[in-house]
Amino acid sequence: MNRPNKKNAPKSSTGASKNKKSANTTFRPRSGSPATAKKYAKPISKEPLPDLNKEEIRLNKFLSNAGIASRREADVLIQAGNVTVNGEIVTELGYKIKPTDVVKYDGATIKSEKKQYVLLNKPKDFITTMDDPFGRKTVMSLVRKACKERVYPVGRLDRETTGVLLFTNDGDLAKRLTHPKHQVRKIYHVELERPFLHTDMEKLRTGIHLDDGMIKCDQAEYVKNGRSSEVGVEIHSGKNRIVRRIFEKLGYTVVKLDRVQFACLTKKDLSRGMYRHLTEQEIAFLKMI
User: Which pTM value belongs to this model?
Assistant: First the structure.
């Protein structure tokens, strides 16, 4: 039998195409609207969350899935000897656990949990904490029935501030959304005790010196169809009481403060004190940040 002569076979043209640079460049979008997320979002994986009954996974990922900490923080806990597997302390990074392994953190057994993402329209007079020794109302009482998994607030809103507040047991995502380098946008509706001066509006945009450093709003303008005492500000800083402190520095008293947007999440169609679960599109967008 005669075999084909490879030397005489036509050469593929794919090699040349590989050397050509694409004329199209994909840009990573900034935090914005769900419409932007739909345009740029990667297809949502249909793969299930890691299941200890089916496969081995890294110990730090298991801790993150359980909502204990982000993967990086979990590595610190592991190296510190705070985690045991089958009664033995494990300090090896990259260690994988088996379906039958019993994992404990600080003596408590950890079970793999499904990731949950809950959005609350926070009302006044609730503090953002897991529990309060003084018996004050906490935001946890408002989302207690949202899911069987224990979720945690991402960031915080002070007692008198209302609006968008996200809860999740996804440690990695929570870490990303609160880290300053990701500059997650937050939009607030601010109501003051007196009209806000145009000269002070310019100060919001150029910057104001506070005790902990310089701060400026990414955007600031009067609320459309609102009074001159109502201002909308966009800011990415997550410092404690930052919006209230900015206006106090300018000599104003904040009467009402409402967070209307956090990343791509808004309180649209969500009544005060109510919660809802995020859509797959919203979750995909947050993971792109």
Answer: 0.67
